[in-house]
Design brief:
Blueprint: E1 16-21, E2 24-29, H1 76-88, E3 89-93, E4 98-104, H2 107-120, E5 125-128, E6 136-141, H3 143-152, H4 167-170, H5 174-188
Antiparallel strand pairs: 1-2, 3-4, 4-6, 5-6
Helix pairs in contact: 1-2, 1-5
Length: 190
């Protein structure tokens, strides 16, 4: 396939390329394309990924605070944790407290979410979900961590239909994007 800009890509005959249709973009087999067909291509491809995070969080000055120091870089545990929180999480905020929790029935997901909190250096707990036989919750009660989530993307504190992927993940390295997507799909996908 050669684009109008002169870029070339070699594909198999069954490779899907995306064309504009009435319902948006739809896949079209490469061997069914004709000269002059318009296919979707990225406007640009950035080779320089940016895993940096530049947010500040107001510290909580309390003797029993679950203190959290915001990282300056995205890494796979943070990317996975964001995937779990956006897919299966819930953030509770009140004037006196805040918590992020992930509910699931899969022990592997719950154990990994707990590991991700541990990697970030915040305390967490795991307990059964009230009124549910198999679901459990991994919970991090930390006003500072919730403020960090809010600084990354305020929609993370909203209900599931309002969730958005933080901008920092859209420019993150492929390794961190993959970690986010793997956690999101593992916990939300069927």
């Amino acid at each position: 396939v050669t684009t109008a800009s002169g870029r070339e890509v070699e594909v198999t005959p069954s490779h899907p390329l995306f064309m504009q249709s009435d319902s948006g973009l739809s896949p079209q087999r490469a061997d069914e394309l004709s000269v002059g067909d318009h296919i979707a291509v990225p406007r640009r491809i950035d080779a320089a990924w940016d895993d940096s995070i530049d947010v500040s969080v107001e510290a909580v000055h309390s003797h029993n605070a679950n203190s959290f120091t915001p990282p300056t870089q995205i890494d796979p545990p943070l990317a996975r944790l964001l995937g779990y929180i956006i897919a299966e999480g819930h953030v509770q905020v009140s004037e006196a407290s805040a918590a992020a929790e992930i509910t699931n029935v899969d022990d592997e997901i719950l154990a990994d979410a707990a590991h991700c909190f541990q990697e970030l250096g915040v305390r967490w707990s795991r307990h059964g979900k009230h009124g549910h036989e198999t679901a459990e919750i991994v919970r991090c009660s930390s006003m500072e961590f919730v403020r960090f989530l809010n600084a990354l993307e305020p929609a993370i504190l909203e209900t599931s239909e309002a969730q958005l992927v933080p901008e920092c993940l859209t420019r993150a390295s492929p390794e961190n994007k993959a970690a986010f997507l793997r956690a999101y799909v593992d916990s939300e996908g069927t």
